[in-house]
Amino acid sequence: MKIVIYPGTFDPIHRGHIDIAERASRLFDELIFLVAENQQKQAFFTAEERKEMIEESTKHIKNIRVSSTSDLIVNVAREEKAIALIRGLRHVSDFEFEFQMAMMNNHLNPEVTTILMMPDEKYIHLNSTVVKNVSKLKGDISKYVPDVVQRYLNVKNNQ
I need a surface site. Which of 4, 29, 83, 88 has the fewest CB within 10 A? Predict the structure, then answer.
């Protein structure tokens, strides 16, 4: 069975992430969304909230599982017997960071390949920070996030 891990903070998930997941899920038997819990980063949503949003947003994709970790991604890949990691790449400016991460991951676990995927061009400008900021200022993000994410953002922004 060919397993791929799609790691990220997904704080929150948006349609760019989902676009990549839909296409990657056709290439692999199983795709694991892996919510990274980084203690050095202050997440807007809890890991559990992010997992719930991902599960609801991707329920139309049958071969997806959602998990979370605070461990190294390559260690999770080894445990899950994953053969690849999917990373989103929007702009050339993303490449340097993703290249460094891919090389480090390769040194830590040479059994796992990093695959860089670009989202559809209509989502190329999206990132979770932009989504949160526009939502906080009451802008329309309905084209960029599933309904469940919009509901979570509305609740969080109105607290």
Answer: 29
